[in-house]
Design brief:
The protein is mostly helical and about 70 residues long. It has three helices and two strands; from the N terminus they run ββααα. A hairpin with a 2-residue loop joins strand 1 and strand 2. The protein starts with a strand and ends in a 9-residue tail after the last helix. About 15% of the residues are buried.
Length: about 70
Amino acid sequence: AEHADGPVDDTLLDALFPVVDSSEAQRQAVRLAATRRLTVITGGPGTGKTYTVARALALLAAQGLDPARIK
């Protein structure tokens, strides 16, 4: 998958979402967040929204996205 600045690095996704404690839905949400201009992450209490958003921001930062573009 690609975002505005290039492809999503699966190695980074693997590092951010170790198999032991990751949800495939969360991993997919991060991939989508990196490839879309706008992504809305929803879910009930305790479903990992904050964890997922933090990982999405980490992925974008690790891939060199200008932090000013994150709003």
